């Protein structure tokens, strides 16, 4: 049974509070304070005595986030002494804090050293404040940096996951690829980013919930799902295809809105790179699902079906909601 330690509950509350402070702040200094509170609350959450690599991951995360925070603070004297625009320095620091390319190298290794529950926090909650702060920096002077980071993130997220056999690293490169779409959404139309991020959080949480419940960390462990219920296997297939943005699943809807907005604004080359990388991510998602659907493993007592697995499989069918939307016209209200 899952129990939440009081200290972990406290740090979870302060983590969310730090993100809210950064979101609602009216000055960069207050936003920086919110990011620091968010950082210092996340470090104890990823530290675990049962995981030997968690201390290394916590130290890497702390050093990278401290470097990003120092760059944000250094933008103030750069403005006063050198009369430089602080926007480029702040944007670079926020890209570093999120793990977007070309400053993404810390992100897969940190993901590999923490548990699945901490992974979903790192992929979703920890990106809310930096992403919204980036939306304040969309100017003609920062356009080239955002374009370059989005292109590199899409290529790194697509190509980086091809030679991986560890599922957490695959999810890390997947997150980098989705950051490319979110940066494009921020540049084209900020409300599109909120829609994309919300649906991405739902879909990635459904994937991580299945991986966490079955304790899948490697490709070979995915074959253990062959002895689980058919519902659980199909739900993992739907969740991964939705995460890749394949129609008619839920993950395709925000991509479709971004595609329409980018075509309307004339960003055809940018869009082609994003679509090319999305096809590559679909390939390595299919590698995981084919492993669970085609290979067999010996039956053990640990692979017996539980009511929780059935509930989890049913919840994951939220990815099929776009197929149900035409039925809304038959509602009496």
Offer a quick outline of the entry:
This protein is an all-alpha fold and 333 residues long. The chain is built from 15 helices and no strands.
What does this 3D model show about the protein?
Residues 25-79, 86-281 form the NADH:quinone oxidoreductase/Mrp antiporter transmembrane domain. It catalyses: a ubiquinone + NADH + 5 H(+)(in) = a ubiquinol + NAD(+) + 4 H(+)(out). One of its GO terms (cellular component) is mitochondrial inner membrane. By secondary structure, the chain is an all-alpha fold. The protein has one domain. 71% of the residues lie in helices and 0% in strands. It contains 15 helices and no strands. The protein has helices spanning 6-24, 28-46, 54-81, 87-98, 106-112, 116-123, 125-135, 143-160, 167-188, 190-214, 230-243, 252-264, 268-294, 307-315, 321-324. Helix 10 runs antiparallel to helix 14 (307-315). The longest helix has 28 residues, at 54-81. The protein is globular and about 65 Å long. Residues 300-304 and 327-333 have low confidence and may be disordered.
Alpha-carbon Rg, integer: 20 Å
Number of strands: 0
So how many helices?
A: 15
Structural class: mainly alpha
Q: Which regions have little confidence, pLDDT < 50, spanning 5+ residues?
A: 300-304, 327-333
First-residue to last-residue Cα separation:
42 Å
Domain unit count:
1
Mean pLDDT: 83
- Overall, the morphology is globular
The topology string of helices and strands comes to HHHHHHHHHHHHHHH
SS strand fraction? under 5%
* Major sheet size, sense and barrel closure: none
What level of helicity do the residues show?
A: over 70%
